[in-house]
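Annotated sample (chain length 170).
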Amino acid sequence: MAGGLTHFNSAGDAHMVDVGKKAETHRIATAQGEIRMLPDTLRIIEDGTNKKGDVLGVARIAAIMAAKKTSDLIPLCHPLPLTKVSVDFHIDRQKSTVRCMVTCETYGKTGIEMEALTAVNVGLLTIYDMCKAVDKGMVMNDIRLLEKIGGKSGHWLSESGDAASATPLI
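Output written by the structure step:
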């Protein structure tokens, strides 16, 4: 087993890991990603003139819904009872980007990282979908886990330490 991965049974087939005997613990994960666009596209988002409506409002709801449905989207991912999902957007006019940051919490027996990462991806995809009529060249990048707290592995913080210093703008 490479790196201690446990999603394979004794026959080498993929399977859902048995977490039945693990203790429930408070788990928190924060992830982020960004979408780069033309300055005019960013302006449309900021001034609320997108013909499809409130881009960031819809993206926030989509991200929350995605976090709640992660186990339906990611094979072998356990369904988790989420206790909190927060979604924040940060606009950087100089880079012409919108950063999406999601924090998910649960009291569960496994993970929470996949929920935060899935929510970021869907939030960014929703921004793309709502703005693609004016800017098909948008680029999503730097999607990553920033921080994970709880569970058997304890506390993990990305080397950049972004989660600890992040402040939402919107």
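Annotation: The beta strands are 25-36, 82-92, 97-108, 139-149, 156-157.
Annotation: Residues 164-170 have pLDDT under 50 and may be disordered.
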